[in-house]
Amino acid sequence: MQRRLILRGAGASAAALTAGSSLTACGTGGGGEMELSDEPVELRLTWWGSDTRAELTEQAIAAFEAEHANITVKGEFKDWSGYWDALATTTAADDSPDVLQMDEQYLASYGSRGALLDLGTAGEFLSTDGIEPSVLETGRLDGVQYAMPIGVAVLSCVVNQDLFDQYGVSLPDGNTWTWDDYAALAASLTEASGGAINGSGLSGSDNGSIRYWSRLHGGELFGEDSKVVLDPQTLAAQWEYWLDMIASGACESAAQMVEGMNAGIGGDGMSTGKIAMGFLFNTQITAMREASGANMQLVKMPGSGEVDANYFKPSMYWSVSSQSEHPAEAALFVDFLVNSTAAADIIGTERGIPSNTAALEHITADLAESDRLAVEYMNSVTPGPPAVVTPKGGSELEPILRRNAQQVYFGEAEPLAAAESFVEELQGEIDAAK
Amino acid sequence: MSATTELRALRGRGVTGKPENKAAFLFLLPWFLGLFVITLGPMAASLFLSFTDYNLLQPARFSGLDNFTRVLGDERLHQSLKVTFTYVLVSVPLQLALALGLALLLDRGLRGLAFYRSAFYLPSLIGGSVAIAVLWRTVFGADGLFNQGLALIGIDGPGWISEPGTALGTLIVLNVWTFGSPMVIFLAGLRQIPRMYYEAASVDGASRSRQFRSVTLPLLTPIIFFNLVLQIIHAFQSFTQAFVVSSGTGGPADSTLFYSLYLYQRGFGAFDMGYASALAWLLLLIIGAFTAINFWASKYWVFYDD
Amino acid sequence: MTDTLAPALVRSAPPGKPRRRAPGNVRCIVKHAVLILCALVMLYPILWMIVSSLRPEDVIFRDPSLILRDLETGNYAEGWGAFADPFSHYLINSTIVVAGAIIGNLVACSMAAYAFARLEFSGKRLWFGIMLVTIMLPVHVIIVPQYVLFSQFGWVNTFLPLILPKFLATDAFFVFLMVQFIRGIPRELDEAARIDGAGHPRIFAQIILPLMVPALATTAIFTFIWTWNDFFSQLIYLTDPDMYTVPLALRAFVDTQAGTNWGATLAMSVVSLLPVFLLFLFGQRFLLRGIATTGGK
User: Fold this and answer.
1) What is the tens place of the pLDDT at every residue in A125-137?
2) How confident is the model at residue A3 (pLDDT cuts 50, 70, 90)?
3) Is C284 strand, coil or helix?
4) Does residue B47 form part of some domain?
């Protein structure tokens, strides 16, 4: 008797699992006819981020509900890693929230597995006109618009002017400087402080910095057909550059970098005034200024005077789940969040500099100083071609990169061997996901 | 006559009754319900998934033994096994020794016991909360407390928490630091020892160390055994502390990549839940083997009063 | 009578013999010194957390000492009001989950443990083995199928997935714990009761339960702490922020990209630690109620 019970229990659960999953695969949000309902509709919206973001988003929800009497929106906030665990689990069980905040690294993993709604089918409710085509492109996979870019960010060099002043070093000219100039400046900062600080943070283990470096050298991280086209030689050269920086004391040690990375903004060397220069996305200057209390400034990336290697990275997107029972209302809500000045007034630059140009213009007059710096910086940058979206299976890009870079920085692996293994592992993940 | 033999003499002969199936079934009813309705289904599902290629978002595809053959060539898995075994073999004995030692000290006969017990338990209370990450950085960071202490005696310590060579060590210290749970179980176990055995022993004129060896220790063996089994299982499954301290990376350079952390990274980070399920069942086999050895060995050293 | 002095100790230092007392005192002082030193080392990080929660944000990571220069209570106000609901809301939610879990574990696990420790039934060893095996599988591969199951029950975004399983003794850890304790209780006691004509329910309720108060207290304390700190299952099952518990709210402060309000995070960590600490301070008295005080004849 009991054995039969076991089997039945197992069978039921496995059946449920496959049923849930197959619904995911074929259910694209109720088919062709998409229209707004007159009945009361409840939407679920989910995002990652801190308490500040939660507060602003709740206000935006209230403004949307005031405009649409029959729609209520339930906001669900999580921390970054919890967000992805919960999203994967609920999507697997066919119970995903309607509107999702999406990240570039996960976009293809969800989009090309059928978990996201093709926003083109909701064009009636969601306008894409206000967004520059090159930015809009970053939310598209194989010609399908799976995500609306919320805001854009661009890689920048952040300098702590207070430390420069304190040690009598003058700020660099971002329009002309090279990586050699950067190294010399960092070394002179370390020297001037008598070793109290390091001139630079240790870079080369995040996807922004290796993309920039490879584009500077005529390469790119991802190519067409889900190929990793990064030349291992280029990456190895970048790591060797940083190994020299560590050796000369111009930048922090590998251990300090790891400690700072785990701590995040607020606990890292930049925030605590132990390093004077580092690389961040321009929009992070607000958080950095707040955490450090120091006069942080943005300078162009080394080498940007010669090659337009920088690119606009969507800081995040809104997507609609393909499991949503109310795709029309969900699209309408995304439209409100991205395109309306009412939402822009509330959210400001909290999710990045608005991708909608009209919304950006609308709020430009009232920007706080750090936001103004971020916008000015973005306007000063001439971007190269848009970066190719991380393909499906590439969600492990950062972990693989970080691990290989750390092995190099801690002297456990040779740069070239580690660079080759990075490319190979990443390609392996992507191929396995096909 | 040793106190142990006397103790054995005091034991009842035990009832050699017939099976009491009906009563047992009633007492076990909630557990059976939980087992069949809640526990076994998902377990069976994960066993099924371990033979599939399952990315969470699309239906699982049967892939035979692929996931299990993949285990052989997976270098990160081997690294995680190395990390996990080191962790289990070093931290469990240390933690249990400390817990037992302090439980004996804190059992009775001292002023302020309630305070000490609570103080020693406090670290276990914060468990895997986010605050742990901050605390451990403050203690074992490059400019942390530990290094400031070392500086007093002229040693320039490394950034313990972020050097591949020492990061695992800080997590072992963290585990030993939270020895409160086994300590509490030991305390409860000490309280469970019937007074009459001590009285009988002291009538025999046994010294205190003798009483410890012939009454306390044998009667505590079921609890020592319990703690050993459970702490080994927990240490093999250790996840939260490494996750919180390394921000989920298992870094630097995979030096704190616990088995469960790797399994989680595969399942949720890389959408590779089929393989993660296979890894989970492999871990179950490893833990099961350790537990079986423990139970087998317990025949030789654990003393039951029934 | 909740606190007892061991007769052995009393005997080793008989009153009125100063010469024998002196070494006892020295031993006592040494013991205290060791314990206080240990306690200081153990507690330093926690004291640091408390002190830091009273520091301005930008000082927190620069000062590992315990000296408080400027007192900043703003972290508490900020943390308390950081989300749509005041922090007390999350404390209450956690309390509901924890209370349900404790009751469930006490009732269901003690019953199962009685059967395993005292009753003879067919397949006992097999069932015991199965119970142990259920402890061994990592939660991360169980959670997805379990979510599918509970969402079909319609339990998502309620406390049921967090509480109800405890009433079905799914925390086999505690069953095992109690089995070990019951096996330490002398059989003569139940045999005597049985001779008086008591059935199993009565032996369980009147003999075994009172004698295993330390194990029950241990179970209650552990259930409290683990449920109070449990992040993963609460994250998965509670979706609406109105249902959030303390660990979810605490984790929601953390954003390594846009900056974390560490002052508020530490302040609320202290707040959430307080009930657990008080419970332990109160509850540990029950650990002392062994046979020594209740049944020692």
Assistant:
1) 999 999 988 889 8
2) very low
3) helix
4) no
B142 shares contact with chain A (CB less than 8 Å): yes
> Element (H or E) spanning C32, and its range?
helix C18-52
- Give chain B positions within 8 Å (CB) of A393: 270-271
Could you state, in order of their start, the residue ranges of all structural domains in chain C?
7-79, 85-252
Closest by alpha carbon to A142, among A317, A389, A324? Answer: A389
Amino acid at B303: F
Answer for the pair C217, C123: CB distance below 8 angstroms, yes or no.
no
Q: Which amino acid is at C231?
A: F
CATH 3.40.190.10 residue window(s) in chain A: 33-151+315-380, 154-312+392-432
Q: What is the pLDDT of residue C139?
A: 85
Which among B10, B129, B188 has the least Cβ separation from residue C269? B129
What residues does A158 pair with on adjacent strands?
A278, A298
Q: H or E element: which one contains A198?
A: strand A198-200
Closest CA to C2 of A215, A77, B113: B113
Q: Does residue B267 belong to any structural domain of this protein?
A: yes
Q: Which residue of C has its CA nearest to A85?
A: C236
Question: ipTM, 2 decimals?
Answer: 0.85
Tokens read off for A160: 């702590």
The pLDDT-based confidence of A393 (bands split at 50, 70, 90) is confident
Q: How far apart are alpha carbons B244 and A249 in whole angstroms?
A: 30
Question: B173: which residues sit within 8 A by CB, 6+ positions away?
Answer: B140
Question: DSSP code of A222?
Answer: B
If we measure between CA atoms, which residue out of A174, A198, A179 comes closest to residue A239?
A179
* Model pLDDT for residues C93-146, shown as the tens digit of each residue: 999 999 999 999 999 999 999 999 999 998 999 999 999 999 888 888 888 899
Report the residue from C11, C181, C229 with minimal CB separation from B127.
C229
Q: Report pLDDT for B306.
A: 58
Confirm if A83 and A51 have CB atoms less than 8 A apart.
no
- What class does CATH assign to A154-312+392-432? alpha beta
**CATH classification of A33-151+315-380 is 3.40.190.10, yes or no?**
yes
Arch. (CATH architecture) of C85-252: Orthogonal Bundle (1.10)
Of A41, A47, A44, the C-alpha closest to A78 is: A47
Residue B177 falls inside a structural domain: yes
Half-sphere exposure at residue B179, Cβ-oriented, CA atoms within 13 angstroms: 27
Q: What is the CA radius of gyration of chain B?
A: 24
Element (H, E) at B217: helix B217-237
Average pLDDT of every residue of chain B: 86
Q: Which of C120, C115, C222, C122 is nearest to C171 (CA)?
A: C222
Q: What is the pLDDT of residue C59?
A: 77
pLDDT digits (tens, 9 = 90+) for A161-187: 999 999 999 999 888 899 999 999 999
pLDDT digits (tens, 9 = 90+) for C63-82: 778 888 778 888 899 889 88
Residue A291 pLDDT level (bands cut at 50, 70, 90): confident
Q: Which residues of B236-262 are buried (b: 16+ CB within 10 A; e: fewer)?
A: bbbbbbbbbbbbbbbbbbbbbbbbbbb
With respect to residue B45, please indicate whether it lies within any of the assigned structural domains: no
| Residue of chain A nearest B160, judged by CA positions | A255
Angstroms from B86 CA to nearest CA on chain C:
19
Quick check: helix, strand or coil at residue A141?
Answer: strand
Number of domains in chain B: 1
Out of B17, B136, B191, the one facing C287 most closely (by C-beta) is: B191
H/E stretch holding A76 reads strand A71-78
**Measured between alpha carbons, how far is B288 from C2 in angstroms, rounded to an integer?**
40
For residue C191, which residues of chain B lie inside 8 Å, CB to CB? Answer: 12, 15
Calpha distance A234→A388 (Å, rounded): 18
Q: How far apart are CA A90 and CA C144, in angstroms?
A: 8
